[in-house]
């Protein structure tokens, strides 16, 4: 059982969606992440290098998702998960929720949650 480093309510604007109008204008996406990371080394050393820097993860997601262009949330999240495992080697498991608040006007938000483990 590992510890969880989390990011909640991370907002970025992206080109995402299956309809023509969605391919013309950016719309907000909201990310919630839980990253399973062993924190014992960082807790002893007090060094950011020994853990996962949530600020670096947040900055990466804003940049990567902001420059992405997908039809489906499914594709975006699957590819984002691979990028995060590749860039942040201490992440063992990832749970990511993505919300698309403008997609269904009658709903507060809609979206997708995926959970993946690092493939060794
Ligand atoms: N499972 C999904 N369903 C839908 C998606 C999606 O990405 N995954 N996308 C859309 C449209 O782009 C919608 O968000 C526009 O309102 C519809 N269903």
From TrEMBL:
This is 7,8-dihydroneopterin aldolase. NCBIfam families: folB, folB_dom. GO terms for molecular function: dihydroneopterin aldolase activity; isomerase activity. Catalyzes the conversion of 7,8-dihydroneopterin to 6-hydroxymethyl-7,8-dihydropterin. Its EC number is 4.1.2.25. The lineage of its organism: Bacteria, Pseudomonadati, Pseudomonadota, Gammaproteobacteria, Thiotrichales. Keywords: Folate biosynthesis, Isomerase, Lyase. Coiled coil: none annotated. SMART domains: FolB. One of its GO terms (cellular component) is cytoplasm. One of its GO terms (biological process) is tetrahydrofolate biosynthetic process. It catalyses: 7,8-dihydroneopterin = 6-hydroxymethyl-7,8-dihydropterin + glycolaldehyde; 7,8-dihydroneopterin = 7,8-dihydromonapterin.
């Amino acid at each position: 059982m590992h510890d969880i480093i989390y990011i909640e309510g991370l907002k970025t604007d992206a080109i995402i969606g299956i309809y023509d109008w969605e391919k013309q204008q950016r719309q907000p996406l909201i990310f919630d992440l839980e990253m399973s990371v062993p924190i014992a080394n960082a807790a002893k050393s007090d060094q950011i290098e020994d853990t996962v820097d949530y600020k670096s993860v947040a900055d990466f997601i804003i940049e990567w998702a902001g420059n992405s262009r997908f039809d489906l949330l499914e594709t975006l999240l699957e590819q984002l998960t691979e990028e995060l495992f590749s860039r942040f080697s201490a992440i063992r498991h990832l749970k990511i929720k993505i919300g698309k608040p403008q997609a269904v006007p009658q709903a507060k938000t809609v979206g997708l949650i995926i959970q993946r483990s690092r493939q060794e």
